[in-house]
Amino acid sequence: MIKCSAIIYQGKIYEGTSHPKIGLKMIEDEVCPRPYPGGKAQGFVTETGEFVNRDEALCIAVQAGQVVAGQTSHKNKLFSEDLRINSS
C-alpha cells in the first residue's frame, strides 16, 4: 500500500501529502536550492518504508485498491492528487 508522497534527495527520503509541499518545505528548511528535485527524485513511500517511483507506485496503489486502473490523472504514473481524489 502507498503511505504518502516522497522526494528522495542525497540518499534521504522526505515525506508529505504532495510533492510540491515536500519540495517547498525542503527549500524552506534549506535542504536544497530552488527548484526542488523533480523527475525520478519524486515518488512515493510504501507502508513498509520503501521508496518507489511513480510507475511502481501506480501498480501498488491499484493492487491495494487505493486507485482504479485507468482512472488516474496520468496513464502510467501515480501522482499525489490521485490518492487525494480517491480517498475523499
Tell me the layout of helices and strands.
Elements: E1 2-9, E2 12-16, H1 19-28, E3 42-46, E4 51-53, H2 54-63, H3 80-87
Antiparallel strand pairs: 1-2, 1-3, 3-4
How is this structure best described in words?
The chain is an alpha+beta fold. It has helices at residues 19-28, 54-63, 80-87, and strands at residues 2-9, 12-16, 42-46, 51-53. It is 32% helix and 24% strand. The chain has a four-stranded antiparallel sheet with strand order 2-1-3-4, covered by helices on one side. The longest helix is centred in the first third of the chain and has 10 residues, at 19-28. The mean pLDDT is 94.
Class by SSE composition: alpha+beta
User: What coarse outline follows from CA principal-axis ratios?
Assistant: elongated
How many domains make up the coordinates? 1
Helices and strands, in order, run as EEHEEHH
Order of neighbouring strands in the sheet with most strands: 2-1-3-4
Q: pLDDT below 50 for ≥5 consecutive residues: which ranges? A: none
Count up the helices.
3
- Alpha-carbon distance between the two ends: 17 Å
